[in-house]
């Protein structure tokens, strides 16, 4: 069958050694005659399953066509040779790879596009040249983007399902997907960008332990050995190399996507993944910038169990000492104490608004910065409501508005939002102007609590009784010992 590894029925290598130079010499005066001469040898070698000779002849034909300057002839020959009955797959692959190298030598853009389309036609639907098709398509996409046709560039590149390509290295697959996501983001197709980004397994970016020079040398030798023993139709062996550059590109895109969705908690998690990178840890300036943004986005995230747990874990990170202002802001959210927004704004606004994350006024260049500033105020107020709910069972509305630095309408709105999200329990009695934070309980709940408290109380009494009895016994024994000493 076509493309399988056969033992050649006949070796035409000696014929090729003689005919190929003759054909190249003949091509100087008559290109078509040279191609016809090589075509006869190609047919004989192909029918005899002589892969080495067939590959040499195909490369010779396309090279002669290219050197003649007739790019239409080259396109015709590539299409013709790829459609030959029983054409060997590996020979076709080598021919396509050779023609791909001619792209930089094309005289103009129109010629280059014609060669690219020819190669895309030849490689369409053929698994054995899927990697070459992907690279050609990527090249075409880059040309379209340079021409300003972003939609075509995105559509062309996103038609590739590179995650299914078995012969492509993992690194190259990741680079392709990252480029697809980048084009979708640039076009504003956020849904497609999010779908494509999920094709990348984050475990690929897991940080690897540092290796000794001996281990690196051993791995290099093993890699070279795999290269030597690799069959011609097998994919290139994977080399254990750093993927830190891909990791940073991936999380940069994830941060852009989560910011667009205003998903602050995910943004914080992505920055934490960026922090777990050797190049960031070794650069003090980048380290401080990433730490600051981790704090900003964790306090901006709406309160829930996940956010609370992450906030306290970040608070325990010793590296926060490098960003003291952010550390003080974070600490305020970890303690059950009221924060007055006017004081918070006065204390932290000069520092926070100096970054690109917050802005106290609408900025057309960074419209989300003002939104984040308003969200920070919202999180401070929500924190204060939770603190009040913790320490009060009932409170006058006038007193609550005073504690929260809000008017009655805003106070009701924030309480309603927190009740809706099931963060707190509260009922507002408007006629009585009272907010009740105590959850109503039926008789069974009250009785169960009383019974539990009584068991706890009796347990404490029993423990105290044992301790008193023990002390009394020790007191009786002590004089007896003293009397024995005197005796």
TrEMBL record:
<dbReference type="Pfam" id="PF01399">
    <property type="entry name" value="PCI"/>
</dbReference>
<feature type="region of interest" description="Disordered">
    <location>
        <begin position="211"/>
        <end position="239"/>
    </location>
</feature>
<dbReference type="GO" id="GO:0043161">
    <property type="term" value="P:proteasome-mediated ubiquitin-dependent protein catabolic process"/>
</dbReference>
<dbReference type="Pfam" id="PF18098">
    <property type="entry name" value="RPN5_C"/>
</dbReference>
<protein>
    <recommendedName>
        <fullName>PCI domain-containing protein</fullName>
    </recommendedName>
</protein>
<dbReference type="GO" id="GO:0034515">
    <property type="term" value="C:proteasome storage granule"/>
</dbReference>
<dbReference type="GO" id="GO:0000338">
    <property type="term" value="P:protein deneddylation"/>
</dbReference>
<dbReference type="Pfam" id="PF22241">
    <property type="entry name" value="PSMD12-CSN4_N"/>
</dbReference>
<feature type="coiled-coil region">
    <location>
        <begin position="24"/>
        <end position="51"/>
    </location>
</feature>
<dbReference type="InterPro" id="IPR054559">
    <property type="entry name" value="PSMD12-CSN4-like_N"/>
</dbReference>
<dbReference type="InterPro" id="IPR040896">
    <property type="entry name" value="RPN5_C"/>
</dbReference>
<dbReference type="InterPro" id="IPR036388">
    <property type="entry name" value="WH-like_DNA-bd_sf"/>
</dbReference>
<feature type="domain" description="PCI">
    <location>
        <begin position="266"/>
        <end position="442"/>
    </location>
</feature>
<dbReference type="InterPro" id="IPR040134">
    <property type="entry name" value="PSMD12/CSN4"/>
</dbReference>
<comment type="similarity">
    <text>Belongs to the proteasome subunit p55 family.</text>
</comment>
<dbReference type="InterPro" id="IPR000717">
    <property type="entry name" value="PCI_dom"/>
</dbReference>
<dbReference type="GO" id="GO:0008541">
    <property type="term" value="C:proteasome regulatory particle, lid subcomplex"/>
</dbReference>
<keyword id="KW-0647">Proteasome</keyword>
<dbReference type="GO" id="GO:0008180">
    <property type="term" value="C:COP9 signalosome"/>
</dbReference>
<keyword id="KW-0175">Coiled coil</keyword>
<dbReference type="InterPro" id="IPR036390">
    <property type="entry name" value="WH_DNA-bd_sf"/>
</dbReference>
